[in-house]
């Protein structure tokens, strides 16, 4: 008969409580570091989009009112 897996004979609390706790203890700092980098990159991307949008808005506002014609 084929085995179902390494965790087949263990109690439920080992599968659903003990193993996830051990993973969090061992890899917790790595997980937090990766999440921090992802959040930092997302924040910087949103900031870049907002700055570019603001720049385009300001340039269009001032160049649209000061120039009467002659688009390039």
TrEMBL record:
The chain crosses the membrane at residues 12-35, 41-59. Pfam families: DUF5326. The keyword Membrane applies. InterPro entries: Uncharacterised_SCO3924. Keywords: Membrane, Transmembrane, Transmembrane helix. This is Membrane protein. It comes from Streptomyces caatingaensis.
